[in-house]
Specification:
The chain is of the alpha+beta class. It has two domains: about 190 residues, no CATH class; about 200 residues, no CATH class. The protein has 14 helices and 14 strands. Strand 3 and strand 4 form a beta hairpin. Helix 2 packs antiparallel against helix 10, helix 2 crosses helix 12 and helix 12 runs antiparallel to helix 13. The mean pLDDT is about 85.
Amino acid sequence: MNFPFYIARRYLFSKSSSNAINIITVIAAIGVFAGAFSLFIVLSGFTGLKEFSLSFSNQFDPDLKVLPQQGKNLTLSAEEKAKLAEIEGVELFSEVIEERVFLDFKSKNKMAHIKGVDEKYLQVNQMDSAIVFGTWFAEMEAQVVIGSGISHDLSLGPFVYTDLLEIYVPRPGTGQITDPRDAFTEKKVVVSGVYNINEELDDKYVFSSLEFARELLSLEENQVTALEVKLAAGADPETVKEQIRQVMTTPIEIKNRAQLNDALYKMLNTENLAVYLIFTLVLIIALFNVVGSIIMVVLDKRENIKTLYSLGATPVQIRNIFFAQGVFMTLLGGSIGLLSAVILVYLQLEYSLVMITPTLPYPVAITWQNMLVVILTISTLGIIASFIAASRSKKALEVS
């Protein structure tokens, strides 16, 4: 067995002659344990919150979204549709039309976005699972699905046939308008359902059939504002993107789910980094106890150091004894803290120990990335702290 490691292990598990040093050593070990424990708990909590927040956008946003590079509309020919369907990696694609509209119901009004979708839309996205009242609209009828925020603001529920929802959009054209009634295209519809995803989306979108939106906006038969693409399992997004660009004759841009929610991803990643840095600072402070503990052990073992030196141990070997002791203490306390944190997070996943609401447990996640971050953080800081403390053994040797 390596000589410094053997002595370091003996020092780690043996009691010192001074009770104060024993207490300091225990406090240092507890500090490392608490630092690793809290760091993993916080990272797991933020990972769970991130997955929980993104689950709403995953329900609404497609794998890929094809948008015009200039202007609002794409002109899609039958030949292009056929070629898109043949691309390996594209399971399905849906045509959509989006535009701002003005809603009016019983003298209550609101700005929103209409989103006309075709019959394949529910296979690309899972919007029907977000319906909380009523049903998805019927394709051949003047029906729409609205968000719960719009429903609340307009005091409008599903299947109110006595009073219809009125949708207005500016009429395309040029020249002076003499009659205000000619400035807008108006359609009256029945609300068939109300969806609930998140506050922003619930207050924004009104879903209708593609033909209804096209007629409302006076678009041509082959015009859409975007294509939403569902990728086949195992498909490479970048390869699919390149193939779509080759098919389309008009300039386009293609965004994935992360790019569609760029602000949300940046916010979550920034918060995660900020919390990691804060708890790493706490861990650094806790590791000062390790430095203090090793220095106290060095002072306590001055006679042992002199004996080892007399027996032929070199100053480097003596320094490595206390360096190894500090590393062992850090890794032992960190490993126990990490294991305890993993067990606690697992219990939260299985038994919902902490609840946000009576039906919603606090979201957490166990990932190997978080484990790796904790291990690397503890190991790096522990090695630095141990090296600083072990360097005191040289001075103890000079004093001896």
